[in-house]
Design goal:
The chain is of the alpha/beta class and about 400 residues long. The protein has two domains: about 250 residues, Aspartate Aminotransferase, domain 2, CATH 3.40.640; about 120 residues, Aspartate Aminotransferase, domain 1, CATH 3.90.1150.10. The protein has 16 helices and 16 strands.
Length: about 400
């Protein structure tokens, strides 16, 4: 469509607004999904799950991969398998998504919130170390927007204090630190294939680990879960529908049937998405570099990745002084992403998850000022230029 627009030399421009959703879903994914929906016997269980898990393991360079119906369920599984529960503390970076804090709380453990470093919205590791107590069992680090955390320092902090290191790679599939893929540094890591992430199976989560004992426990945990589909045995359209968030989760409550397995049909879609991952990542990196080159000379505050890292921007975060004005300026052209408009994204009130307002002031600031620009396959260089031009004329 971008070519058609160019061909018309701007005279009869088709209205087109860049959404942040669905940027990676292709016609092939849709036909794959329809094929599985039409054959209920292979929709839930089948060989695609194992094949997807092995392909993912090969791509990330992890020994074991265990899939779930969402990333949050993967984190919950990791914590369960580490026997983390009541009386324990887990260091949780802010900003993050409410479901991350929920997964910790569902085990009975207490999330201890750690503020971010505003240079890239990743955890402030010095601050994290000051939060360690005799009850701390794990350090959770999140590669925010696809910018890797300094994993050398994170590993050292975890080792010094005898903590399990867990990576939240939900926004960072394909990113590297010191030439090594994120998701391979800690005891375990989790990814998401929810529809707005680097690859999509509409909803989905993947755990990676190199630890044999953890892997055994995770496979056992997965085997004990019900199927991904919401109403197995019900009418097909009802089985296929998914809710990214249950209202109870937004309030910090645990919905019934919280943890589930990935379905065979979703895994089949995941395989077609994985096959296109390299082109997907190359495109996202090129668009992010384009935003960076266009916006940096105008004084926008842009993320600063660690020197030895290679980010994989699922979205490109930009700090703006006046977010509503920027949203209005971009309105007809792009849906400006608003991940992290709260220290606990989508929470009804972060206090329900035990967050004390004022304790992570940088994350609160980020929540007031961040917009996230789309990087997915449907965003062309020209689109990035138009988005940047409008941001520049709207002012920082
Ligand atoms: C940083 C982060 N971690 C974890 C999650 C949870 O992933 P999922 O929706 O697959 O449970 C999200 C969701 O958007 C997220 O943004």
């Amino acid at each position: 469509m971008a070519d058609a627009r160019r061909g018309l030399q701007g005279r009869f421009r088709l209205p087109r607004r860049h959404a942040l959703l669905g940027g990676t879903t292709t016609t092939r994914d849709v036909t794959t999904a329809i094929r599985y929906l039409a054959s209920p016997r292979s929709l839930v269980d089948g060989p695609a799950v194992g094949i997807f898990e092995r392909s993912f393991a090969t791509r990330v360079g992890a020994k074991h991969v265990v899939s779930f119906a969402a990333g949050r369920m993967g984190l919950y599984g990791i914590l369960q398998c580490l026997r983390i529960g009541a009386g324990d503390e887990v260091l949780v970076p802010l900003p993050t998504h409410v479901v991350v804090a929920n997964a910790v709380r569902y085990t009975g453990a207490q999330p201890i919130y750690v503020d971010c470093d505003l240079s890239n919205y990743n955890i402030d590791l010095e601050r994290a170390e000051r939060c360690v107590t005799s009850r701390t069992r794990a350090l959770l680090v999140q590669h925010t927007f696809g910018v890797p955390v300094d994993m050398g320092n994170a590993r050292a902090l975890a080792d010094r204090n005898g903590l399990h290191l867990i990576e939240d790679c939900v926004q960072a599939l394909g990113a590297t630190f010191n030439g090594r893929q994120v998701g391979t540094f800690g005891k375990a890591a989790f990814f998401s294939t929810e529809e707005t992430k680097t690859i999509s199976t509409t909803m989905g989560g993947i755990v990676t680990t190199d630890d044999e004992e953890m892997a055994g426990r995770l496979y056992a945990f997965q085997a004990g879960l019900p199927a991904a589909l919401r109403q197995p045995g019900g009418p097909l359209p009802a089985q296929a529908c998914h809710l990214p968030m249950e209202p109870a989760e937004l309030r910090g409550e645990r919905p019934p049937g919280f943890a589930r397995r990935l379905s065979n049909g979703q895994a089949a879609v995941g395989l077609t998405q994985l096959a296109a991952l390299e082109a997907n990542l190359a495109h996202r990196r090129r668009i992010a570099e384009h935003y960076q080159a266009l916006l940096a000379p105008h004084g926008f505050r842009l993320p600063e990745p660690p020197a030895t890292s290679r980010p994989a921007y699922v979205r490109y975060p930009v700090w703006v002084e006046d977010r509503p004005t920027m949203q209005r300026a971009l309105g007809a052209l792009a849906v400006l992403g608003t991940w992290f408009t709260s220290v606990l994204e989508e929470a009804v009130d972060p206090r329900y998850q035990g967050y004390l307002p004022g304790t992570c002031p940088r994350a609160e600031d980020a929540a007031r000022h961040l917009v996230n620009l789309p990087t997915h396959a449907r965003v062309s260089d020209r689109d990035a230029e138009e988005i940047a031009a409008r941001m520049i004329s709207a002012g920082r």
